[in-house]
Predict the structure.
Amino acid sequence: MSTDNKPAFLPFALPEIGEEEIAEVVDTLRSGWVTTGPKARQFEEAFGAFLGEPGLHCIAVNSATAGLHLALEALGIGPGDEVITTTHTFTATAEVVRYLGADVKLVDIDPATLNIDLVQLEAAITPKTKAIMPVHYAGLAVDMDAVQAIARQHGVKVVEDAAHALPTTWRGKLIGLHDSDAIVFSFYANKTMTTGEGGMLVTRSAELAARAKVMRLHGINRDAFDRFTAKVPSWYYEIVAPGFKYNLTDIAASLGLHQLQRIEGFQHKREHLAERFDAALADLPLVLPPRPLHEGDRHSWHLYVVRLKDDAGITRDQLIDQLFADGIGVSVHYIPLHLHPYWRDRYGLKAEQFPHSQLAYERMVSLPLYTRMSDADVDRVVASVRKAFGRA
């Protein structure tokens, strides 16, 4: 409690770091190998084992943004090409397309799921379209059967933005195991598991993986770890492409090794908190987050996003103001790309082109949801929301 007897501020998100993670980081620091090395390789192997399919290539990177960029680069995306994604996402999904000189085509969302509208996605495909990038918004799976059918019919590549989607499932299969060309996860500080900053690029393609590994570290044709730990002189390397600096450090991977072991427990806790929110908010004029379409499928619950109904009687901003006045951190996911000056001006975008995303944005609030929250924390958030609606 603070000195003025107000409850301590409840932040929007906090990572859960245990003694195992701390000990692993200390071990790494003492080892003398703190950049990309044995722990990063161990983390890649552990991630592949978690997904559970032999032959997958898992490539650790310093952000999901880096992973998306590497995937598109390895697929040969470049000037004159188009990549389709949703307007309702963080800018990283789209900006990596521009890194490569290609163009982005944005489409609206399904108002029920807040995921990309697959009818509009297919309608947007042209001869210039080389890839589609579905985003598993908030941790709810996109219909991957439909995505794959569209991709096969039109001969386009699929790169999944799975930044929110560990350990989400679609029809019983983990995201990461469907027939996409690449899948990219995020381990940013507020994600379902964290390495501080970091991500993982997953692919079945040995060719894509080989290119991504080279481009991950300056276009060098040999990993630094291999060169510096060899038993014979191995100082020689060659630059085979103008690569990037996208490697994950062993310090970050040390966190990931133990966070990954806890991901199932993390998901169960997040689901418990989401169910508690659902029960306590059900009578309010709110659209609660959608559930998985298929029985037994799993939502990662990276975000818990509510939307005000037509008869709410208050605005989204009034709800946010009440929560902040009560010392509760919230956010909005997202300000759609079509409203940001760069995307709006480059492609001449207007809000009326994206009515579902626009309306969702105007009415949505992301409530705090993370594993360090207690049931009492959820009750505190609920009490503030109810106060805003005059239902305390």
Notes: The first helix runs from residue 19 to 31. The longest strand covers residues 57-61. Residues 263-388 form a domain with the Aspartate Aminotransferase, domain 1 fold (CATH 3.90.1150.10).
